[in-house]
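B., you asked whether I could sanity-check this one before it goes into the benchmark set. Here's the sequence:
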Amino acid sequence: MQSLYTASTGMLGMQTQIDTTANNIANVNTIGFKKSRAEFADLMYSVMEYSGTATSDVTKSPTGIEVGLGSRPTAVNKIFSEGSLKQTDNQLDVAITGRGFFKLELPDGTEVYSRNGAFKIDENGTMVNSDGYTIIPQIVVPPDATNISIGTDGTVTVVTPGQTQATQIGQLGLTNFINSAGLHSLGDNLYIETDSSGQPVDGVAGQDGLGTIRQGFVELSNVELVVELTDLITGQRAYDSNSKVITTSDEMLQTTNNLKR
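And here's what the prediction gave me:
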């Protein structure tokens, strides 16, 4: 009875959807987090009669007989829509309004990308993220700096004692990808390029389609709880319905077995 296996593929698919939704909900307060969406496709069909098969000398079957064999997950797509901004008044907090990623360097030299702009300063005055990964290009803040200003184009200036004018110490660059959804998620709000994402394109904030930088803000998660809870409910109901199909198929098999009595 094929319905047993068909329904099981539906249950596995709904498990994938619920797992994806659970991860979205768990990261509703994660700065710079981008939600994911599970996508599905139907499996191959068992063809009992092809459409167009001759039914007589002058007629043909208009539809045929094809029985589906279930569904399968085809992708878990990362949605890079913008999250809302939260004002923090922290000089080192920055958010991107529009497209682009901050470029960071791991201890082994690997370049990674992030939308999380909650930056810090390490013991050497270097701007880093919360895990201590250095921003690329590197920006070092003088130890006697009394004020740090970051412009919408990423220009970083500081004011030091005895100076009347601000001094530029670097510029926060942004990186874009032709297919951001193709990036590989490493966790910790970090992404790495893949063959599907395309090559990274570095640029200046506000130019060539890149977003602008807002100092004193962080970008919140783009997860919408109402949508996620709705998806959770529909996923659960679909899972229950598929399990009901398995129960019904089992009862039909039991009825068949009872025929010999």
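One thing to flag: The two ends are 21 Å apart (CA to CA). Otherwise nothing jumped out at me.
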